[in-house]
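Design a sequence for this backbone.
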């Protein structure tokens, strides 16, 4: 049985748990958004992990903007899937909850996840920011078509997608939000879904958050470097496994 003491005072919480969920591209795969490293990830025969770099942008900003514009359009047309819905449901029912997503799409929020319970650690694809100064704007509608490169209205430098590229630093404020949660108390449950878990900080947060006694559930059709630490693994698509896991949690109050 998982569940900390001290919850009864908080009558509104349906499950007395501190929960961290970490997601990656696999959670949006069933919404038709290609993963980065999967076989469908290639775009015009180009490797996304090579396009999402400051070097690619410096070499060919048009090409990189075209890729992001196409991704924005695809995300705009996509719908949240049962995995996003299950995570949103868990967020609303758990006593304490944080989602750390590596995804730059907006499908978690469109599934009903309260934005204040989510950290988009790799940024937001609908944000456009200046490559030189602090100027940034939110472009949910497709204002930028990739045909002409956008320039900063403040300093005239090239605008770029507001995401974190390979080799770039994570946003310190966002790291702080995650660290606050991770150090704020051991989690009863950590769920890591749809990520190849290639970044050390993802594994570090998952392991530190679960502490000595928390459960660590991995949802991924493939094994990853995190699998060896999981207390339960579901080798299934997230849209299949997560609704079941969350239903089980909500009916038992435990994982
Ligand atoms: N359900 C769950 N997992 C899935 C599904 C699915 N339906 N389909 C694929 N997966 C898994 C794959 O097995 C793989 O482990 O999702 C993972 C996707 O891995 P990546 O493409 O590497 O995506 P991610 O882990 O999010 O990448 C991390 O790297 O490219 C950068 O910044 C980018 O945020 C991204 C980061």
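Sequence:
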């Amino acid at each position: 049985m998982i569940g900390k003491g001290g919850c009864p005072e908080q009558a509104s919480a349906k499950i007395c748990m501190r929960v961290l969920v970490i997601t990656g591209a696999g959670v949006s795969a069933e919404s038709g958004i290609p993963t980065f490293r999967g076989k469908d990830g290639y775009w015009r025969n180009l490797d996304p992990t090579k396009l999402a770099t400051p070097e690619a942008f410096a070499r060919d900003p048009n090409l990189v903007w075209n890729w992001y514009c196409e991704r924005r359009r695809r995300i705009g047309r996509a719908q949240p899937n049962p995995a996003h819905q299950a995570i949103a449901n868990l967020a609303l029912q758990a006593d304490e909850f944080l989602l750390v997503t590596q995804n730059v799409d907006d499908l978690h929020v469109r599934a009903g996840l309260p934005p204040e319970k989510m950290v988009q650690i790799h940024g937001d694809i609908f944000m456009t920011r200046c490559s030189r100064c602090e100027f940034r704007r939110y472009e949910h509608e497709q204002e930028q078509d990739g045909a002409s490169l956008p320039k900063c209205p403040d300093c005239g430098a090239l605008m770029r997608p507001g995401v974190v590229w390979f080799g770039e630093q994570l946003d310190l404020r966002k790291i702080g939000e995650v660290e606050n949660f991770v150090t704020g108390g051991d989690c009863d449950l950590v769920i890591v879904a749809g990520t190849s878990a290639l970044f050390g900080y993802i594994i570090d947060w998952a392991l530190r958050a679960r502490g000595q006694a928390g459960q660590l559930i991995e949802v991924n059709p493939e094994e990853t470097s995190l699998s060896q630490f999981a207390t339960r693994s579901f080798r299934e698509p997230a849209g299949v496994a997560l609704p079941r896991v969350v239903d089980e949690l909500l009916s038992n109050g435990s994982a």
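The first helix runs from residue 26 to 29.
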